Amino acid sequence: MSAEPPAGNRWAASPARKTRPARYLSASSRPRRHPAVPATALSTSARAAVHQAIKATTRKNRNAEAANQLLLALLAHRRPDPVTELLDHLGVDRDAVRERLAPDDRRGR
To answer: Of the four listed, 33, 41, 42, 91, which is most buried by Cβ atoms within 10 Å?
Structure first.
C-alpha cells in the first residue's frame, strides 16, 4: 500500500486547498432551491398565505421563521377555506397554536 493518495484524487492532502469549492458542498450546507410551485397547485388563499409568510420574514430569518409565519397565516383563514375545514376536522385549537408560535414578548414573558 502506498502512502500517497491516488493521482486522480483532487482532494488529496494539499496545503493550498483546505476546503472544497462551493459546488462540492453537501446540500445541507447550501440554501435549498425548491422547484417553482405551479400557480394551479395552490388556491388563491393558499398563495396569499405563502406571500404573507414571505413578507413577514427577512432573508436572514426566513429559514427559521417562514414555517411559523405560514402556519399563523393559515390559522387566520375562515370557512369555507379547505385549510379551516381540515384544522377543524383535526381538532386543532387555533388560539393555543397561535400562543405557542407567538414571539416571547407577546407571551408576556
So the answer is: 42
